Amino acid sequence: GLVIAVAGLVLIVIAAGGWYLFGEKLFSKPTPFAKISSEELFTGDSILYPTLSPDGKLIAYYKRALKDGKDTKMVVVRQLASGAENVIREVDSANVNLWVVSFSPDGEYIYFRESAVGGKPNLYKIATLGGSVQKIMEDVATAAISPDGKKIAFKKAGGGQDIYERNVDGSGQQVLLPAADINAGAIILGDWSPDSKKLSMWYWRADMKDEAGANNSPYF
Question: Rounded to two decimals, what is the model's pTM?
Fold first, then answer.
């Protein structure tokens, strides 16, 4: 009888301790954000393709504006805390197209795509503080850099809807997803998962129409 009483007392103590530690979490309802605020960072210019640095302190983006009276496309890096900006790439809008892709995982470089008007875009990288431009690969319609910085997923601009991957050094290129598996029209690559094992993308289904009969319903 004493053993049973002691065992019962132990169970009561364990139950009480568990309730004290976890009871509120088990039966509490998720609390929504108490307050959500926004801050306007840009105004007055054409701003596209924003991407945050891995540490969240910088933002790189495409900017189109008149500079010294000339229509110019730029890659701009902005420090969020101070608002200080630095133009690290600058091209003539009439002759060159420009797209910002992402920061490198270490935050030291910014990847961007650039092409002559009417030509195929190439993938480049440039130091976050500016400097010389390094060509990474040619004929890239859309690209995504893996979180470990070792791989690039991409679709070629020169026809075909296959999604490829390759190592940053150019080796190991292979088809990641055949076009036949998705039957897509336009394709945009999103982000890799943190473990670099999955890749998000959105696209228009070539065989699906919206209510107006057009192919403009994206799938993710």
Answer: 0.75
